[in-house]
Fold this protein.
Amino acid sequence: MHTESAPNAALVNVENVSWRAANKSILNNINLQIPSGKFVGLIGPNGAGKSSLLRCLYRFNRPTLGKITFNQQDIWQLKSEDYAKHVAVVLQETPSQFNLSLYDVVALGLTPHKSLFSSTTQSDKQKITQAIATVGLEQQCNQSFESLSGGEKQRALIARAIVQQPQLLIMDEPTSHLDVKYQIQVMELAKSLGVTVFASFHDLNLAAAMCDELVVIKKGEITHTGTPLQVLSENMLAEVFEVCAQVTHHPQLSKSGSSIPHITYFYGY
Ligand SMILES: Nc1ncnc2c1ncn2[C@@H]1O[C@H](COP(=O)(O)OP(=O)(O)OP(=O)(O)O)[C@@H](O)[C@H]1O
């Protein structure tokens, strides 16, 4: 398979995807492109279909209709181990890791790249140690994964993704249990990897600050796409999220120098 994409070419293409479960239409005719190298946020109210769409992208849900391509190849035509080499997933609920140490969990990122029974090389060990240092968890290296705090667990899973060296990082609400500092830290860490990221958010101000592009989904359909400035309008917030809000500008500019929208919510409506 191709492993390189030109910057801004679509790494992922979602074409006319619908997904039904329990006799209900959950996703309805989704069309979406995720450009290579961009940080794309998926936002929408509870039950809109964010996790369902992300699950289609990491092959947990098989679309009922339509097609998803990765580097122009249908993801269901790829061998699962090939897809796993290129796509890392960080979820909201940290899975139980059977008494593994933080180091062991991060080392799991190598699994898609290794053949069965092959041993860990010196260079593998270096990659693991380096990733742990990148997320600032050297002190916790031998601690059991289960004993880490929520923020440390999420950072460990990002370290696992760093070791995996994916082209695409999918994150489903990875910060919802974290305090403000870790919310920012985990997302900035994901951004610093320089890979394509597709992440769902509930915190719209965090999404505005982190994302190059936003996709809005409501009742299984995409309603808006564009830059945070284009998408996060007071009208959209009223229509899609049913809140009364004022959108102003954040005092900081984004790294690319563009204005970051900032939402202030009004109460009592
Ligand atoms: N396997 C399934 N079987 C039946 N219904 C499902 C299944 N998976 C999801 N749904 C339903 O699909 C709808 C969308 O769920 P989904 O988890 O994708 O929404 P979401 O936007 O991620 O929501 P939230 O913000 O609350 O996490 C919900 O009504 C949910 O109950």
Observations:
- The CA atoms of residues 37 and 196 lie 4 Å apart.
